[in-house]
Structure formats: structure tokens, C-alpha cells
Amino acid sequence: MHVPPIPSLATEDPQLAALIEGEAQRQHDKLRMIASENYVSTAVLEASGTVLTNKYSEGYAGKRYYEGQQFVDQIETLAIERAKAVFGVDHANVQPYSGSPANLAVYLAFLSPGDKVMGMALPMGGHLTHGWSVSATGKWFTSVRYNVSKETGRIDLDEVRDIAHREQPKVIFCGGTAVPRTIDFPGFAEIAREVGAVLVADIAHIAGLIAGGAHPSPVGYADVITTTTHKTLRGPRGAMIMTTAEHAAAIDKAVFPGLQGGPHNHTTAGIAVALKEAGTDDFRAYAHQVVANAKALAAALTERGFALSSGGTDNHLILADLTPKEIGGKPAAQALDRAGIELNYNTVPYDTRKPFDPSGIRLGTAALTTRGLTEEQMPQVAAWMDEAITAAGKNDEATLERIAGEVRDLLASYPMPGFAR
Fold first, then answer.
1. What is the CATH number of domain 47-278?
2. DSSP symbols for 106-129
3. In order along the chain (421 residues), what is the average pLDDT of each group of 10 residues?
4. Catalytic site positions
5. Binding annotation for (6S)-5,6,7,8-tetrahydrofolate
6. Which of 68, 279, 336, 344 has fewest C-beta within 10 Å?
7. Assigned CATH topology for domain 289-411
């Protein structure tokens, strides 16, 4: 059963309620390993589903365009102060609707159409909004891209420096959507200073690890830090932009009125709860366990012949090239889903296949760790993955069904926030 319960919805719209209950059951019964997903706490769910959704609040605390902000101002201020405390930043804006608008605000704050922006190429693990051609950021601005080394799968900062000096971008992004290794924030900061660029650290994937001390922080190196509030931070689907005092006004103006109207106050409340949780010793232990689980899973997969990009991981994320397994990423991901193991197909660096039918899969350990799994279970997870991928190549649906049952049996012992049996 979904927690909090939804009896009014079940009465008013039983069809939708049944779908939501089905999704809650699905999330409970599967090994959720999509690297950008997690489970939020019941407290975050409750905060995100309140009467705050009724309220319009264009502007910022103390400077709104609508009346009736006595409580909303306090809620947004609370979220801001908690973000500043958890991450140790001068300024935080908690209003962006999601990660892509947060990144777009950076462009509006610091660039004019046609200016150069530098980011990791999408096929190498970068994000669409770091200047990729199909994104507005690649259509409206001049994109300069850096890659990872073919030999190591890691960023070569000497190459980044050479490109930056040659192209002279105004903004440099570090971070991405499929980066399994520690980001060298000091190295990027040095390059940005050399060319006079604004350094933006996109920590959407690793924000929770940074908050918990399991990954180095960009604070003190990056001028601007963007992040989603879900993923490893275990908050609702929203975003934040954190800056030095120097850039606070430009970012705030870019978010509102530059890109958005009223913030989603119910989401702001959920962010505030998640940030309170992120400041606890329990969360710190969680962040370190996420990394420990990922390292253990990477080692177990390597033992079973999986080819991991960069040879492993330093964070929550693993990127595997399935070429040695003689199967594409898409059919493998679909078979794994039928086996109760949820992840996504993904390009790998220098992939020879098309993006919608790539060679790789991307997976992470944030959600598994929230459920309470540890290094002890990672060899079994790797074994199930290997067996399911082998079964996929043989159209062996019986094996996939059996694994799904074994996954359900395992997870029955690990409670899920938001669901009660």
C-alpha cells in the first residue's frame, strides 16, 4: 500500500489510484538501479503533497508579487538556509523546476546567444544542457566539447586546458550524467581561471555524496554549482543553484523573472525536508555506504567479465560496455527489467552503435542503499545481472522470471519508504 495512504484519491479516481498503487508495488519489488533515481523518505512525500501546491509565490522571500506569503516565505528561507549549511555555500536558489532549467539559468546569467560554452561531450558522459547540439544550449550558443581518454576512460585535464586556451569559452561545465570517477574540481578551477571563464559544477548525480562527505566538494573552486534535488540527495524532483556571493544576484535574476514564474512551493518544502535529513550522521553513513556498494558491485561485475568504463567507479554510478557479452545495451536493459532489475541502456565513450541502441548500460547503487542493502548483497546482484543477460541472448524467459522472483524474495526483507505491505 502506498504510504501516505491515498483513500480520497481511491474514492474520487480509482483508476488513477490503482495505477499509483501498482507503481508503489513495482518500486518495492524491483532492484531499482537507475543511477538518477532513489527513494525519498515518507516525510519528503508528505511535504510534497500538501496544500502548498495551492499557492502562487512569484518573486523571492520578502519581495513577492502576490500577497499571503507569510508561511511560504519562511519555508523557502528554511530550504535556503539548510542548503547553505549542508553545502557550505554563500547563496542558494531553491526555485528551479528541474536540473535543465537550472543549467539554462546559468546561460542566461553569464552568456549572450552565440557565446562559447565548454562541456563534456554527451557520448562521453556529459549532459544535454552542457552545450550538446540537439539541446537549446547547443543551438543558441557555440559549443566546445572535451572528451575522455580512449585508453583510460577518464578526463584528461591537459586536453581540457589545451581546448580552453584555444577556444576561450566564457563558461566551463564540469560534471555530467554518466561520470563514474571523481571530478577534479581544483583542476577545472585552475583552467577556468587561466582563461577567465566562469566554472560551473553540475553535481546533479553526486550532490548527496558531497553532502555526506563521500565525494570532494566543488565549493571554493566552482563559481556556480547546479544540482537536482533527487538522485543521491534523496529529495523531490526539483533543483538548486548555489553560488558565491559575487554571482548571487545574476543567478536569482536569471531564474526569476528570467525563466520562471511562481516556484513550486510543495517541492520547496520537500527540498527543505531532504536537506534537513542530509545534515544528519545517518545520511553521512548512507552516502559512504552508497560508494562502498558501488565499488563492491563494480568488482563483482568485473569478475564476471563485464567491461566497465574507466575500469570501475569512485561514486554511485557504473557504466558497462556489453560488447564482450555480445548483446546491445537496449535488449539487455529490457531483459533485466523483466528479471526485476531496473537500469537504463546508455552510450559508452566512443560507442560504435547508435544512441537509441547503444553498447552499454548505466546503473547505480543509491536506491539499493536506501533500502538497506550492503556490500554483502552485491555479488548476488552481479550474479543475477550476468545470468539475466545470458538468458536474454537465449530468449530464456523462464530464467528471467525466476530471477525476478528471487529479487522479490530478497527485497521483502528490506522496507521501502512510501510503501507498506
1. 3.40.640.10
2. HHHHH--TT-EEEEE-GGGT--GG
3. 96 98 98 98 97 98 97 98 98 98 98 98 95 94 96 96 98 97 98 98 98 98 98 98 98 98 98 98 98 98 98 98 97 98 98 94 98 98 98 96 98 96 81
4. 56, 58, 202, 228, 231, 237
5. 122, 126-128, 246
6. 68
7. Aspartate Aminotransferase, domain 1 (3.90.1150)
